[in-house]
Design a protein that fits this description.
The structure is a single chain. The protein has a single domain, classed as NAD(P)-binding Rossmann-like Domain (Rossmann fold). It contains nine helices and nine strands. A seven-stranded parallel sheet has the order 3-2-1-4-5-6-9, with helices on both faces. A two-stranded parallel sheet has the order 7-8. By secondary structure, the chain is of the alpha/beta class. Helix 1 packs across helix 7, helix 3 packs parallel to helix 4 and helix 4 runs parallel beside helix 5. It binds NADP nicotinamide-adenine-dinucleotide phosphate. NADP nicotinamide-adenine-dinucleotide phosphate binds next to helix 1 and helix 6.
Length: about 260
């Protein structure tokens, strides 16, 4: 049987990167739909105000501050969440950062940090929940990558590489997860208006709000597809652009981003 999507009756949801942007809005959307949501990020004050904001909703949000780059801490948090709220039925590994990296001065510390948060943070989360889900023979995991993981984009050498790694990792793990009864999905957003993109100094076509992104993400959790991608106008365009031969790819991306005349 195909792995099934998780329901609030199966246990609780765990969202990382919940203190702002997409993660925050997804946590609220899940609580609106009746989930008990364990919310993780480093900023405790933001998580506390999120929990307060959810008080009037059908479900609720409980703060579990942690740094996703610490595997021991993340494993301990997962254990605590399960012991307090019941099994983690749905995990959304979404924490991420996106500093610009440009030639000729490669900021190695920034590259390492991106890989640590965006790639190792996801693996740390997966390691924390997969064994228990495998034992139960059910569970659902969604991981936020990005359409920037489809192919190289200006300024995104480390960010895009981290998201390409996450896309590849999820494709690979889907084979095992399917056999274990665990539903694994990728979330590949285009541009979403969040603190992460607020610093962007280039045009962001088809920008969507974080509330819209959250709705599309949570709706996607109940669907049968492996990849939840939006807005479709941009994600399909990016998919097609990444099929082009390199000279055309560099010309088109260069022109549309203003990096090539
Ligand atoms: N916005 C977009 O257009 C867009 C497009 C495609 C993909 N994405 C992806 O969507 C995800 C969410 O991004 P966003 O746009 O919502 O950005 P955001 O508002 O900046 O949120 C990022 C979240 O990640 C958390 N985080 C960062 N480092 C962390 C760490 N070491 N440990 C725990 N949590 C950490 C932040 O919380 P603390 O600072 O409190 O720890 C925050 O809650 C990211 O993976 C991003 O790459 C975004």
């Amino acid at each position: 049987m195909k792995p099934q999507h998780a329901l609030p009756a199966d246990g609780c949801a765990w969202v990382t990167g919940a203190s702002s942007g997409i993660g925050r809005s997804v946590a609220l959307e899940l609580a609106r739909r009746g989930w008990i949501v364990a919310a993780t990020a480093r900023r405790e004050d933001e998580l506390s105000s999120l929990a307060l904001e959810a008080e009037s909703l059908l479900g609720r949000i409980v703060a579990y501050p942690a740094d996703v780059t610490n595997p021991e801490v993340l494993a301990a948090v997962a254990e605590t969440i399960a012991s307090v709220h019941g099994p983690i039925a749905l995990a959304f590994f979404n924490a991420g950062i996106a500093p610009y990296i440009r030639a000729p001065n490669i900021d190695l510390a920034a590259v390492r940090q991106v890989m640590d948060v965006n790639v190792m943070g996801v693996f740390n989360g997966l390691a924390a929940v997969l064994p228990a889900m495998a034992l139960r023979g059910r569970g659902q995991i969604a991981v936020t990558a990005s359409v920037a993981g489809y192919g190289g984009l200006p300024k995104a050498a480390a960010y895009g590489a981290s998201k390409a790694a996450v896309i590849n990792a999820c494709e690979a793990l889907k084979f095992d997860c399917d056999a274990l009864g665990i539903k694994l999905q990728l979330v590949n957003p285009g541009f979403v208006a969040t603190p992460l993109t607020a610093k962007n100094d280039f045009p962001m076509p088809f920008l969507v709000t974080e509330e819209d992104a959250a709705k599309r993400t949570v709706d996607g959790f109940a669907e049968d597809r492996f990849e939840i991608h939006y807005p479709r106008r941009l994600s399909w365009l990016m998919k097609v652009v990444n099929l082009l031969p390199y000279p055309l790819y560099f010309w088109m991306v260069g022109r549309t981003t203003g990096t090539r005349k």
